[in-house]
Predict the structure.
Amino acid sequence: MEIKPGKVYLVGAGPGDVELLTLKAVRALRESDVALIDDLVNREVLQFLRPGARVIEVGKRGGCKSTPQAFIERQMVKLAQEGHIVSRIKGGDPFVFGRGGEEVETLLAAGIAVEVVSGITAGIGAPAAMGIPVTHRDCSRGVTLVTGHARTGAGDGDGPNWEALAQSGTTLVIYMGMKNLPDIATRLVAGGLASTTPVAVIQNGTLANEQRLVSTLATAARDAVASGIGSPAIVVVGDVVRYGRSSMITMPLLKSA
Ligand code: SAH
């Protein structure tokens, strides 16, 4: 008997709050036989799977240090070839620092149907939840989503050109930036941003354990250590941060202040 071909949904689960899932994500989860779920995803999304659907943890919580990407991709291909409908659930948006692009390529090369379900990326959703409009037109020409984590061996040398980004006139939304925050802040100031430029750090944005810190380029790295705020976090650099409301304010930055 010929097996009816399966399919893979690359599902963006949004930044954390389960209500930020899209209707399309909920439909994909309902249709799925198997879900492969990443570490950073709120487990509450699993309530939308049908009873009996299989859940495979593919992050550090799954037991392995972090399931290697190639293994995850092989697993998706195999499950779909067996005729399963698979949801690969990722935090935020699958195409924003989510390796979604690589996975689509692999799946298409294996002849597997794939549908991408956009999600709200943490870099926009987490600031929004604290009232930061990342492109407020009074003080920002745009927004740059950038990684603070230089990938070794990717041919990108020392990672982003922070001095150049300092000149961009855009809000900088930095993913995976906590480890390198001292260096990033120093380089942005060296590149010409004022050391008083507001910075927001949002850890576990939109989740119950969310932590927020508002500081400046001069003090953010120190304040982060002092307050204990850490990964996973989004760092927002720019005047738009003044529109935010924070529970952990270290500087009188708020607009009304
Ligand atoms: N695809 C995801 C990003 C994956 S990279 C998206 O679109 O949001 C992982 C990084 O995303 C983390 O290191 C952190 O910088 C950020 N991140 C993801 N979820 C977050 C959250 N709820 N709060 C703050 N940062 C988050």
Notes: The chain has two domains: 7-117, 122-243.
